[in-house]
Design brief:
Elements lengths: L2 E5 L11 H14 L7 E5 L2 E5 L7 E5 L4 E5 L6 H17 L3 E5 L3 H9 L3 E3 L3 E2 L9 E7 L2 E6 L2 E10 L10 H9 L5 E7 L5 E2 L2 H28 L1
Parallel strand pairs: 5-6, 8-13
Antiparallel strand pairs: 1-6, 1-7, 2-3, 3-4, 4-5, 9-10, 10-11, 11-12
């Protein structure tokens, strides 16, 4: 599905602590306009999903690591939806987001968002061929969130989580030291496709990106944890 992005100049650092207050403000906004909706927040690794519970209004996703607000499923049918769209952009700026990403359903929607400064983004395309390990790298996104890149382009976001068992493959010294530090439970990473990934990844490519990045990811995570402890 085509999408558009509004780049923002945030007024502050990312402020996820204010999300619940904002959800209440959004509920009041929607109630005032007669929708009767009660937004619900669902917390996932690295993401907050704000479900609005009605077709046509859409779903908001906040990507903490990428500092993005993602709006999907909004159809700009009337004044309420347009007011809501402007409300979201203002909210994103106040939250410290660097951008708002929106799925586009029609030419009218596209024109509306372009007037707010939106730029059409190219559709992702299938990644041809197998993943080459030497072209996989890992860097920090925010706090302990990591980004797997391929050929210098964003591919996957990683969020450290506790697991029931180790993933197949080598368990590095960095991973073992981190697990000892956090009580001995196996550690792993929740993964999702980065918003700005230019490719559609198949299951094998996704798995290979995770496999080839695992050692780098735990090495970097250990450094980040160590730096945090030294402060």
């Amino acid at each position: 599905m085509p999408w558009i992005e509004i780049e923002l100049s945030p007024r502050s650092e990312w402020n996820e602590d204010g999300l619940e207050d904002w959800a209440q403000a959004l509920g009041a906004f929607l109630t005032d306009r007669g929708t009767g909706l009660n937004p619900q927040i669902h917390v996932l690794p690295g993401l907050n999903v704000l479900e609005l519970g009605e077709a046509g209004i859409g779903e908001l996703t906040l990507s903490s690591a990428e500092r993005l607000v993602i709006l999907e499923g909004l159809s700009l049918k009337g004044t309420i939806e347009c007011d809501f769209a402007r409300f979201v952009v203002n909210f994103a700026r106040q939250m410290g987001a660097v951008g708002v990403c929106v799925s586009i359903n029609s030419a009218d929607d596209k024109n509306f968002w372009r007037k707010l400064g939106g730029i059409i983004q190219p559709d992702s395309v299938p990644l041809e061929g197998s993943i080459e390990q030497g072209k996989v790298a890992v860097e920090q996104l925010a706090k302990f969130s990591l980004l797997v890149t391929y050929q210098g382009e964003p591919a996957l976001c990683l969020e450290p989580i506790m697991c029931n068992a180790h993933a197949p493959g080598v368990v590095s010294l960095s991973q073992r030291r981190l697990e000892k530090l956090y009580g001995g439970s196996p550690l792993g990473f929740a993964s999702r496709v980065a918003v700005h990934c230019p490719w559609k990844l198949n299951r094998e490519q996704w798995d290979n990106l995770l496999s080839f990045s695992r050692l780098q990811a735990f090495d970097l995570l250990e450094k980040l944890v160590s730096t945090c402890q030294d402060i």
